[in-house]
Amino acid sequence: MDLTKRPTVERKILDKYFPGFTIDASSARGTLRSNSGTAYAVRIDLTGFPHRLPQAYITWPRLLMHNGVPLSAINGSSTMHVLAADAAGNPQVCHWRREHWLPEYTVYQVVMKVRIWLEAWERHAATGDSLDRFLPHA
User: Fold this and answer.
1) Among 120, 131, 97, 110, which Cα is nearest to 42's?
2) Is 68 left (phi over 0), alpha (psi -120 to 50) or beta?
3) What integer pLDDT is reported at residue 46 of this predicted model?
4) What is the DSSP string of the chain?
5) Interval 86-119: pLDDT, tens
6) Partners of 56 in beta bridges
7) Is the distance from CB of 63 to CB of 91 less than 8 angstroms?
8) What is the pLDDT of residues 9-18, one digit of tens each?
9) CA–CA separation, 131 and 73 (whole Å)
10) I want to staple 72 with a disulfide (CB 3.0 to 4.6 A). Which of 30, 89, 120, 129 is the partner?
11) 94 and 83 Cβ atoms separated by less than 8 Å
């Protein structure tokens, strides 16, 4: 992909598949709806993008694990596929291994992985099983 055309391409892809998402030089923001109909607000920090892995956060609602503990309280867990929360306590979704990130990957692909993570999250909320049961490590 021609990186000089990147902002225009990213916006077109998001407008087509996730029209509720906005994107600028520093972030992409929007709402994702799970299969159950639950809405989740998502922020993807784009600092250094596309050469640096974007950080994706669930900013609303506050996610409580099956046992009632806030997801952000564990501050990173490979079995739950989360990294350290941001300063506001929003859990960071682990969507890609840093060493596997390539500049050709798109914000759309990150949003899709967050969308899949949300489905696994809802299965955890219903069963108590870790997200590892539903998501492979990529």
Assistant:
1) 110
2) left
3) 95
4) --GGGHHHHHHHHHHHH-TT-EE-SSEEEEEEE-TT--EEEEEEE-TTTTTSPPEEEEEES--B-TTS-BGGGG--BTTTTEE---TT-PPEE--S-GGG--TT--HHHHHHHHHHHHHHHHHHHHH---GGGT----
5) 999 999 999 999 999 999 999 999 999 999 999 9
6) 44, 93
7) yes
8) 999 999 999 9
9) 16
10) 89
11) yes
- Whether the upstream peptide bond of residue 50 has omega within 30° of 0, thus cis, is yes
State both tokens at 55.
């950080």
| Residue at 111: amino acid letter | V
Find out whether 91 and 24 touch, Cβ atoms under 8 Å.
no
How long is the chain? 138
The sign one gets for the Cα dihedral 3, 25, 28, 129 is: positive
Tokens describing residue 58: 């669930």
Amino acid residing at 69: V
Neighbours of 45 (CB within 10 A): 18
How large is the greatest C-alpha to C-alpha distance in the chain, in angstroms?
Answer: 47
What is the token pair recorded at 84?
């350290």
